[in-house]
What does this fold into?
Amino acid sequence: MSTDPGLESLYREVILDHYKNPRGHGVIEDADAEAEGQNPLCGDEVSIFVTFGEDGETIDDVKFSGRGCAISQAATSMLMEMTKGRTADEVAALDKDELLAEIGVPLTPVRLKCAMLGLTTLKVALHKAKGTPLPDGLAGFDELDLS
Amino acid sequence: MGPRYHQSMAVSAGTKLDAQTLRRDFPIFEQEIHGKPLAFLDSAASSQKPRQVLDAMTEFYETSYANVHRGVYVLAERATEALEHARDRVRAFLNAPEAREVIFTRNATEGINLVAYAWGLSNLGPGDLVVVTELEHHSNFVPWQFIASKTGAELRMIPLDDQGELDLSVLDSVAGDGRVKVVATNLISNSLGTINPVAKLAEWAHAQGAIYLCDAAQGAPHTKVDVQALGVDFLAISGHKMCGPSGASALWGRAELLQAMDPFMTGGHMINSVRLEKTTWGELPHKFEAGTAPMAEAVGLGAAIDYLESVGLDAIEAHEHELAAYALGRLADVPGIKLYGPPAERRAGIVSFNLEDIHPHDVAQILDLQGVAIRAGHHCCQPLMQKLGVAATNRASFYLYTIPEEIDQLVDGLHAVRKVFA
It folds into this structure.
């Protein structure tokens, strides 16, 4: 069967590469910040763990675990590379378009939620640890435990 | 690729339907998706609509529209007559004794909530048991969980066996020494297609002194439902899953139970008299139909029932079994596939599966690019997904207009999915 051009652009090589070889995949024990996010549409779950450097602001290490579709896993993997070395404030202010540009394929509204799950969860983790602003709308969160 | 569907495999005996011909009644199929013919395999979520249903609603709007039950003018009388005719079509479709036992609701979820609130809040308390199954749609799970928590009653689950069928051997131990007050199950599982032994479950419920509610949202489109033969107390159907429009569904309940219940929603139309000190409720079914009814939609539901009966429920059921068997056979040949649910002869036209460890969203997205529409997700059955140990599955579901070529298109599409993730 011939492959639709749309198919190749959505599941382009870089996305499949991040999906199959996710960067920053794992768990950090005793993380300085962590949060768990869910996408109620598909039941996907992601946990994000952050440790800060000596200044207490710069992200020294960031990892994620969980399960999800290729788009959510690849986007979260890209996010790990994008945010390591930035400060909590910078990441809290990170525009979703910056991540979308990295993903580089047009997404339908449903898949946009998949792609944003990691970023939203990371911002919640930073909010809990540092009081940085929460992400817009908190879309995709079934239950928020901010305690 | 596997074998193609041969016309010789189609059955052409008297009670069989001709899906290829019926398809022409459905305008939705007159288009391509991503340049491919539309293979619509998501009828369990909502069915497509035949022109006959659309025309009936348009005609109602164009010739008979006014608010019902109030006006004394011609149009109000016509509209009332059309709504009550639709009610009687639902009554006949379910073989219910009386039309006043048929309550129009927005959807099956509302019908179940009606019983959970209006019956449950007054009849449940600490020490009482509400029994549902691991196979329920959230619509027949969450309302009971919520009302149980409000009343102090306990929610218990009838478990599934390895084939995705209810394990009835443990019924009595599920009840234990508790007081079972409600048993609520579906007739057909929206997720696995399992056909449940409703008559047996209703009998068991009654032996416990409980009421039995049947969620027939997935059952009524596919098999003849007879509330008297099944021996149920309440039964909810979903109009949009059976060729009717969205927004009009129905709950049937035994008159004596409905009469004894408080209303669910209050307001206009459902009253007998309103005084400052006290309001009295209207007769059945009006007591449970507060506010303006979904009139045109109910007319559409009546037309959908006419349509299904002209095709024949037996023929629809046989067609679906045939498609389920064909799909299970073809899908089994796809490397890396895992199929869920009972064998073809004991399931409706619903097939849930996973392909290797590829996420269902990715499977469904790649299929969409090939014109194939399937469901990917938890199908509003998270307790079942937990039981299966997965976050989500893919689900292909069939209806009277489904043709085997659509299943071929699905199988071809799955091979393309494997190639992307190879």
